Amino acid sequence: MAAIGNLQSMCYALYLSTDSQKDLTKHNSDLVRFEPISNDDENHFTMLLKNRNKWYVGSKSGCSCTFRHLKSIELGFGEPEDWYREDQDEIDATKELFNLIDQLIFCEDQVDCISIWEGSDPEDVVKMDVQLSLLSEVSFRFFENRHFVFYK
């Protein structure tokens, strides 16, 4: 399993923050795993998050690689396509995470998330506002080095 502050190989990492007091580990499954982050000093990316309750979001692979990711934002959000192979576990894990974020936003909790490629610098991260009501669980995906700020 990848260490929270220091990934062991070239991987994606997702960090999520919320003002919700909910224990997100209660939503752990075979596809999505939440680990609380208590110390921003261990990871310079978590300092970019806006909310006080911070989480590392792992996937089936231990790191955050088994979610839907694109390196570039050029294609935007979109449903899986035949010409771009995505494993069913990536699609299902992303749906599961999207639905949890949607639930939090529905309850008027603040949520943001950073998706980075290991080895990136915090200066590489670009903020991106995401209106969840315009997306479906099937069309949502992460983009490399983005700071997603979610709203209704």
Percent helix range: 10-25%
User: Biggest sheet, in brief?
Assistant: 6 strands, mixed
* Widest sheet, order of strands: 2-3-1-5-8-6
The N- and C-terminal alpha carbons lie at a distance of 33 Å
Q: What is the mean predicted local confidence, pLDDT?
A: 91
Instruction: Give the count of structural domains.
Output: 1
| H-E order | EEEEHEEEE
How large is the share of residues in beta strands? 25-35%
Give a count of the beta strands, DSSP E runs of length 2 or more. Answer: 8
Which class best fits the helix and strand makeup?
Answer: alpha/beta
Number of helices: 1
What ranges have pLDDT less than 50 throughout 5 or more consecutive residues?
Answer: 1-8
Task: Give the overall form.
Answer: globular
- The rounded Rg comes to 14 Å
Explain what you see.
With 152 residues, the protein is an alpha/beta fold. The chain has one domain (12-151). It has one helix spanning 88-106; strands at 12-18, 32-37, 53-59, 69-70, 111-117, 126-131, 142-143, 146-151. The protein starts with 11 loop residues before the first strand and ends with a strand.
